[in-house]
Specification:
Elements: H1 5-39, E1 43-45, E2 48-55, E3 59-60, E4 62-71, E5 77-78, E6 82-88, E7 96-102, E8 110-121, E9 124-132, E10 138-139, E11 144-153, E12 159-160, E13 174-175, E14 179-183, E15 186-191, E16 202-203, E17 229-230, E18 249-250, E19 255-258, E20 261-267, E21 270-277, E22 279-284, E23 287-288, E24 293-295, E25 307-313, E26 319-325, H2 330-344, H3 350-371, H4 377-383, E27 397-400, E28 403-408, E29 411-416, E30 419-422, H5 424-427, E31 450-452, E32 458-461, E33 464-467, E34 478-483, E35 489-494, E36 506-509, E37 514-515, E38 523-529, E39 535-543, E40 547-555, E41 575-580, E42 583-589, E43 595-599, E44 614-618, H6 619-628, E45 637-638, E46 640-649, E47 655-665
Parallel strand pairs: 18-20, 40-43
Antiparallel strand pairs: 1-15, 2-4, 2-13, 3-12, 4-11, 5-10, 6-9, 6-14, 7-11, 8-9, 14-15, 16-17, 19-26, 20-25, 21-24, 21-26, 22-23, 22-25, 27-28, 28-29, 29-30, 31-34, 32-33, 33-36, 34-35, 35-47, 36-46, 37-45, 38-44, 38-47, 39-40, 39-46, 41-42, 42-43
Helix pairs in contact: 2-3
């Protein structure tokens, strides 16, 4: 068939056009592929994947994390080799905290640290890294493990989750690549931030102080991320390729420490008791037992044969003492030496070194286990209650001799048989049916705190005693003491508004028995919640052996014993404008040699009593001042130091007085 030139030209033109169009299309695709390759952040898929969703509102004072780790491989994975990162923007100028509410592997085995990033991104300025203790165990092929946790800021201000890179709007578990996972330090799942870099802001600092949850579900991670932003990251920060670590220092028992500081210690010894005061944190294997006397039967179980201790004190008079005996460490030290020598030797292959080091670790564990065999029967009995239906929350349970109390998120819960709900007296009757514990074997199941309504009922805790102490009236009255410890207790008192003191419910050290001159330090801290009506005061009562009172909060028609009263009925002070412990005092001295220091808001001696609900008092300095006046002798013996509520009347209606914290440093 013959084709004309014009038709040939037409076909050639069309063919050329199609060729050019195809070439352009291929070039555009190549450019787009190249562009995508350049801008796509780091992404990987490995033996695990992450599923997440976020419970609750997007803007609230906590982020409720729901995370599921799925083993997609055909092999078992040790959870201690897995790390998860949740990326977020720092909102505000306060520290962040972490708590694991639930995990089938044990909340105490879930750890967290907050780390600033460098560089940072518009939706990721820092990340939270979740890791697992060796006791978390293994994740079988095809299996998954769930974590229910929370993040909040120390000032409880709101957090907008939608500003966070890792935020997932789903309401149920879905695969989520914006939460990354690492196995043995290698990215195994997810996409790291990196597509929207911002050079305008870099987090200034994250303090490594207290930044690790030290094997605790309740540890305050307290990474103080500065709200100020600059062009560089402080050298105290971890980079995005590493994590901040806390080194626990071995201590020998008995052991004591005084002063301000943030310390991490460990011991495999046998602890008889722990006593502390004026501390911000004293965390033992996930349980914060600060500012109280704790006997061996009330300590949480050891972890891998050790007690891991986090001490945080803010004052020179912060104190902890740990009484007990250390484990003989010769075998342990020898094994550690072998492990260290083998690991550093160039003559031993890495696989062989690992094997020998593993054997050395086994020797260490064996030595510790043998030397620590005297674990208390009560803790063994408690552990025997553990099951899939009733898991024991070791990191959140406080054992005492009369029952069980659960401490969770800084609230106290009373045991209700096997299930433990919130104490309605403390927490408005809320109930959490999923919170389970085992009963304490040393007391009746379901028994709560010490409760006494007798006039002289008392709760003895080591060297401290909490008294109900109703003594000043024969009129109709009621008063009930509820005590969880010597530092946390309350009374509900109903007293008539007649003259005279009716009761002085108190806590304190009853047998100090030291002369004023021999005392080096004697300070006390307190915090109370008090009613807005009634006639009463919050006061210390010290016997030397004459009486010295220190009034911190005065309510209604009460006044101290004084040398006289003015025309308005106000007490006349013996000294005014005395400044001790940061307070201004009027000092009153009665005919029976009772000396009363009253905190006031005036400097002219007028009767304007203060209302202090939280503070620290230097009792030794006050006693020294009284000695200097010649009112008492330095050879006088301080027998008791008590603190409580001196109640003269409640209007005939029940009023509640709560002591939320009390400690003595001596």
């Amino acid at each position: 068939m013959r084709v004309s030139i014009s038709k040939r030209f037409y076909f050639l033109t069309v063919a050329f056009y199609l060729f050019v169009l195809a070439a352009c299309s291929m070039e555009q695709t190549a450019n787009e592929d190249q562009k995508g390759e350049i801008n796509e952040p780091s992404k990987a898929t490995g033996p695990v994947k992450i599923q997440t969703f976020q419970s609750g509102a997007t803007v609230q004072n906590q982020i409720y994390e729901r995370i599921k780790i799925v083993n997609t491989s055909s092999s078992t994975i040790a959870l201690s080799t897995v790390k998860i990162r949740y990326y977020f923007t720092y909102q505000g100028s306060t520290s962040y905290n972490f708590a694991c509410d639930y995990s089938p592997i044990g909340s105490g085995n879930v750890q967290s640290v907050f780390v600033a990033m460098s560089p940072i991104y518009t939706d990721a300025e820092a990340y939270q890294e979740i890791s697992f203790a060796s006791a978390a165990g293994n994740l079988a092929a095809g299996a998954s493990v769930e974590i229910q946790a929370r993040i909040w800021k120390s000032d409880w201000s709101t957090i907008d989750s939608t500003k966070n890179y890792s935020y997932n709007p789903s309401t149920s578990y879905v695969d989520w690549e914006k939460v990354t996972a690492y196995v043995n330090g290698t990215l195994s799942w997810g996409i790291e931030p990196g597509s929207s870099s911002s050079s305008s802001s870099v987090l200034s600092s994250v303090s490594s102080t207290g930044s690790i949850a030290s094997s605790s579900s309740r540890s305050s991670v307290s990474s103080s991320i500065s709200s100020a932003r600059s062009s560089s990251v402080s050298s105290t920060l971890s980079s995005t390729s590493s994590t901040t670590s806390v080194q626990y220092q071995n201590i020998s028992l008995p052991f004591s420490f005084d002063g301000a500081g943030d310390k991490y210690w460990q011991t495999s010894g046998t602890i008889n008791y722990i006593n502390s005061w004026n501390l911000d944190i004293l965390d033992i294997n996930g349980v914060n037992i600060k500012n109280q006397y704790i006997s061996s039967g009330s300590l949480p179980p050891t972890q891998n044969g050790y007690y891991y201790i986090h001490y945080k004190g803010l004052y020179s008079y912060s104190h902890v003492e740990i009484n007990g005996t250390s484990v003989t460490s010769s075998v342990s030290s020898r094994a550690s030496s072998i492990s260290s020598t083998v690991s550093s030797s160039s003559l031993v292959s890495s696989s062989r070194s690992s094997s020998i080091s593993s054997r050395a670790s086994s020797l260490i564990s064996s030595a510790i286990s043998s030397a620590s065999s005297s674990v208390s029967s009560s803790r063994s009995a408690v552990s025997s209650y553990a099951s899939s239906d009733y898991p024991i929350w070791n990191s959140q349970v406080v054992y005492n001799t009369i029952g069980m109390i659960v401490q969770y998120n800084q609230n106290l819960y009373m045991c209700q048989g096997f299930s433990c709900g919130l104490n309605p007296e403390l927490n408005n009757g809320q109930y959490y049916p999923w919170l389970w514990v085992a009963p304490y074997p040393g007391g009746p199941m379901g028994e709560g705190p010490f409760i006494g309504s007798g006039n002289y009922d008392k709760y003895v805790l080591g060297e401290y005693t909490v008294y109900n102490n109703v003594w000043g009236t024969t009129e109709t009255n009621t008063q009930t003491l509820t005590a969880y410890s010597y530092s946390y207790w309350y009374v509900v008192s109903t007293q008539p508004d007649t003259s005279g003191v009716k009761s002085y419910p108190n806590t304190g050290l009853v047998n100090l028995n030291k002369t004023i001159g021999s005392i080096g330090t004697l300070t006390s801290s307190f915090e109370v919640i008090v009613p807005s009506t009634g006639n009463w005061e919050v006061a210390y009562d010290i016997w030397v052996p004459s009486e010295v009172m220190i009034w911190m909060y005065t309510s209604g028609n009460v006044s101290p014993i004084a040398a006289g009263w003015d025309s308005s009925g106000a007490p006349i002070p013996s000294a005014t404008n005395i400044n001790i412990s940061g307070y201004t005092w009027n000092v009153y001295r009665g005919g029976n040699n009772v000396v009363s220091f009253v905190a006031v808001t005036s400097t002219d001696g007028s009767w304007k009593p203060a209302k202090v609900t939280k503070g620290t008092v230097d009792i030794k300095a006050i006693l020294n001042w009284i000695v200097a006046q010649g009112w008492i002798s330095s050879s006088g013996t301080v027998g008791a130091v008590q603190f409580g509520f001196e109640i003269s009347g409640t209007g005939g209606v029940p009023l509640k007085f709560i002591c939320t914290n009390f400690s003595i440093t001596k």
